[in-house]
Amino acid sequence: MQEFFLVFGNVYIPITAGIFFLIYALYFFFIKPSNTRSYRVFKFFLLSFALFLFGRPSQLLLGPHPVPLIIVNIRFLVLCGFIAPAFVLSTSTINLFSKRRQYYVIGTGILVGIIYVLFTILSTPGSYPVFKLGDITAHDTYTPSFVAPFYGREVTIAIQVLLGLVLSLFTVMNILRLWKNYKKEKMVHRKYILINTGALIFALSFMIGSYLKQWWAFYTVSIFSAIIIGGGVLIDIKEMQNKIEKIIPLLKDDLIQNVSISLDSSGRIADMLKIIGKNESFDTFLVVKINLDHEEQRMIDHDLDILNNAITAINRKMHALMADKDFLVLPLGSDKTGICLAVRNYVEADKSFLMNLAETLHKEIRRKLKTQVFIGMGRSYSRFENLPLSFKEALIAQEYAQRVRHTNVISIESIQAFTEKDEKYPFELKKELLQALRVGNMPKSKKYLDEFMQSFIVSFSGKLDELKVKVYELIISISKAAMEGGADNKKIYECNTKFFNSADAITNIMMAKDLLTEFVDNVVCSVNTAQQKNAASSIEKAIAFIEKNYRKNLSLKEIASHVFLSTSHLQHLFKSETGQSITRYLNRVRMEKATGLLKEARLNISEIAFELGFNDACYFSKAFKKFYGVAPTEFKHT
């Protein structure tokens, strides 16, 4: 009978408990995915403890010494380095640990595990037979009691009891603090009370089981404690899902507002996207237009489900084409839908990925809605802040597809390619105009704009729809050139939005010319302002570099290289900003430092010359006399 209990407590119970913990972990992995901290830590705890439990029968049945010693040490390292830290972090969700404190918890656990392993190895000479299971003899580590100098049995039991006691006190403190505030925030704290109650049962059973050496009791109780903790984690997951359901509509409204104007709150939006499991680095925008005839429009007035049907079809197809985190579908009105994409990883593998995606999407929507669909694609940008530009480009491409070329799917790059092939379009003048804009040259910008508009009038007079699309495209191109010239992105976006709205009201070619003239004036001013700031910054950096390195044999090329300018450009900027050449400024700095060294009288003339970067004392003396009108020796004795 005794042997039956030994087999039952050391083989069947830990295996049964291990299977339970493994299945429970798989349930949380695949059935209840979430981004909550309690979920992430708890599933890690379940897997670690399942490994710990399966280790017990392995420790006994895989052979005599040193196998039981090796496995028991691995089990306790898992307990101290993985299970205990996960235990502490999961019960502490009310007061989130900083990363540094998390490392302290994990480090402390590993240290305790190493101490346990050390004393076990030093005090365990072998193993002893425990029971027989068929033809297999089970062996356990033989660690004698009260054996000097290590007292391994007492130390290891003491470590286990102490670990259980610390974890118990930790959870008791959490429960008391939670219970104190329970009436104030019942819904908020209920999940934490469940988590900590289950954790307390787990810690107490571990402490008592270790003291009485009745591990089977601890294994059994751990199942019930895990069920209680899991209940708290499920509440946490449910609360997070409710929050996400409330956040998504707000997020979509916020994102729509920002991509149509600017992304001042891009950091906050990125955080919100991360919470709902979306990629916080969206780089591309698509606009989908559902072309409705009058009969369909009347139907929409009575039933708005057609847009929902389109969004449902888009979502379903996008799930088949991309990972869920890499796209977000946004309603833009009664007949338009926007799609934010993170495509850089996909495009690296296949440059035609985006076009293939849009064409597949077009076929799916056509099949579902039985109506004409137009899709416009913006460029992919490396920065999240440039998403508004991709949005504007997608709108232009969609309008171009519908009004100009009657192409169902088109990208902004394709529009420019078509433009280049159009013999009537003044492409070379456009290039000259954009180059003048990049350098902030107002006279040339106006000159090339006038010449461009004269050719533009010939190409698009009387074609209002095509004219508007071309104006949109020009605004985008001019905006991009301005940002390449260093203009402030925020100001360009604001200017961009203002003139986009004005472009909607264009009714003739002269209105288009006046609008573009005003837009170019605004953009050139922005570029000039930015370049003046950049110039001032470059001069400040050059002066700081000179002040720090005047003792060296500095060359003009070395200073220019430090501020990333050509020597001629640096000389021009320095002269215009300071009123003196850069060589004279360097010489003045050295001469001012020289007067201080001469007054101190610590160094002779030659030493001072070399201290200031002069290779020749005579040359220093001549330069000093030319600057101050007296030789250094005379100045030193005055």
What's the total number of strands? Answer: 7
Q: Please state roughly what percent of the residues sit in beta strands, choosing from under 5%, 5-15%, 15-25%, 25-35%, 35-45% or over 45%.
A: 5-15%
Number of helices: 25
- Largest sheet properties: 5 strands, mixed
* Content-based structural category: alpha+beta
Distance between the termini: 111 Å
- Inertia-based shape: flat
Main sheet: which strands, in order across? 4-5-3-6-7
The unreliable regions are 261-265, 294-303
Structural description of this entry:
The protein is flat and about 105 Å long. α2 runs antiparallel to α3. The chain is of the alpha+beta class. Strands 4-5-3-6-7 form a five-stranded mixed β-sheet, with helices on both faces. Strands 1-2 form a two-stranded antiparallel ribbon. β1 and β2 form a beta hairpin. Helix content is 72%, strand content 7%. The model is unreliable at 261-265 and 294-303 (pLDDT under 50).
